[in-house]
Specification:
By secondary structure, the chain is mainly α. It is built from 13 helices and no strands. It has 2 domains: about 160 residues, Orthogonal Bundle (Tetracycline Repressor, domain 2), CATH 1.10.357.140; about 140 residues. The longest helix has 28 residues. It is globular, with a radius of gyration of 19 Å.
Amino acid sequence: MFTQIIKLIRIPQWIKNFFVFVPLVFSLNLFHKELLFTTLLGFFIFCLTSSVVYIINDIVDADADRAHPVKKQRPIASRKISPSQGIIIVAIFTLVIVLLCIGLNSSFIFLLILFFIINVLYSFKLKHIVLLDVFSIAAGFLIRVLAGAVIIGVAVSSWLILTTMFISLFLAVMKRHSEIAMLSEDSTVTTRKVLAYYSLSFADQMATIAAAGVIICYALYTVSERTITVFKTENLIYTTPFVVFGIFRYMFLVYMNRQGENTTRILLTDVVMIITVILYLLTTMFIIYNKY
């Protein structure tokens, strides 16, 4: 039972909530103990909230998941955990979330509620509406970044917000591309109804635009006047090649290796991608923190 609960709350998916740390890192407060602890608290709250959303989604999609080659193994779809047990877990997690939010500022709580509402709407309706489905996913990442900023009371660069929006759109569109490609290879596979409104060429064009948006916005962020003033250096531009390589590597894995349906799996299992992320983080940390 415990193993099934761990699978149900999808701990590997918690990696997405690390976007909460973006404002902490880029506001030069990573080593500020109080703000670090506050951000960790926000991260944990978003992890629990994400798990609540995943459980609700699994309950709603149980019948459809049973017809999917991979999703049929999920605890509720495979009937190893009943919907009523899932609801109990949701209730417990919700109580813990409410208790953890006591004392936090109202802006963070508002963004958390907004995150929950958008994701629940996605589970019930938005994922069936063309374009709104990918923008709903993107909104979740953007809200995480904004929540990470308000919980510690710092401002976020507009260019960084745009970068977050484009990279989340990119990941969402590439996920749709993988699902369409899987459907075209095996028409017996049951997938999302919204895929009927997409095509590989349409998804490719959106992915290209989103990828270009990520690279351009991040590059402009590194050379913006505000960034140079805050970090007292122009060297952040040298982290751009890691971003470009990471985007290209992800596209290679999706287009050439037929991956992409599970973003988390790529980030946690592809050695080249892991090394790229680590090198980016180390380079960024050295550039912006070596004077402090």
